[in-house]
Design brief:
By secondary structure, this protein is an alpha/beta fold. 45% of the residues lie in helices and 17% in strands. It has one domain: Mannitol-specific EII, Chain A (3-Layer(aba) Sandwich). Strands 1, 2, 3, 4, 5 and 6 form a 6-stranded mixed sheet that branches. It is globular and about 50 Å long. The protein starts with a helix and ends in an 8-residue tail after the last helix.
């Protein structure tokens, strides 16, 4: 993938990173750790579901498509096919646990709070087993202590995961999200939603960050 294509892929806004099933509104928790745990659960369930759907789709491949696949991948020579089964890595999405995601988010927090101020938290990490950025979003019915620099309790928390090797793109996404959450009107609107579907629909209606 070229750098230009990467720029397009990683020029992502909230609606690109989220789905309604990864949003919780007016959620009730009592601590920062429990908030991060909720995000980890949403992300873990979604990643494993996506992986399962891809596996099921691959299993439905026609025999003709399956026959062509090895040749396209360059893994076979002539008609000879490898019988070797790839070893399953511990960090495959299929075996990725909520606890592993939580540990990754907490490890980043140990380097310094990801609180952006104004009641917003943006915990994030990079994982080797994912192929594209993914996020989960939680609004809280009551803010929690997040060790933010402005000392304000946090009640809007977006958990972000990106592929491990995409450091520059990771920073670009974080910068774009920080600009988005700097909008006071948007923060107020997000706090008022009680249904994930409606919150997501609102995100879809937003002007691009540069035009807002």
């Amino acid at each position: 993938m070229s750098r230009q294509e990467l720029q397009i892929v990683y020029d992502m806004d909230l609606s690109d990173l989220l789905e309604p099933e990864r949003i919780r509104c007016q959620h009730s928790v009592q601590s920062k750790k429990r908030t991060l745990q909720t995000l980890a659960e949403l992300l873990g369930e979604s990643l494993r579901s996506q992986h399962l759907a891809k596996c099921e789709k691959a299993a439905e491949q026609s025999p003709e498509e399956a026959e062509k696949a090895p040749a396209k991948s360059g893994l076979s020579i002539g008609k000879k096919k490898s019988r070797k089964v790839p070893e399953k890595k511990e960090d495959d999405v299929e075996t990725l646990t909520d606890m592993a995601i939580l540990d990754a988010l907490i490890s980043r927090e140990r380097l310094g709070s990801t609180g952006l101020g104004h009641g917003v938290g943006l915990p994030h990490s990079r994982l080797s087993c994912i192929q594209e950025p993914i996020a989960a979003f939680v609004t809280l019915d009551k803010g929690v202590d997040y060790e933010s620099t402005d000392g304000q309790a946090v009640d809007l928390v977006l958990g972000l995961l990106v592929p491990e090797k995409c450091n520059d793109e990771h920073l670009k996404i974080l910068a774009q999200l920080a600009r988005r959450f700097s909008d006071e009107a948007l923060r107020t609107q997000l706090r008022d939603f009680t249904e994930p579907d409606k919150l997501y629909t609102h995100l879809l209606s937003l002007e691009p960050v540069g035009n807002s």
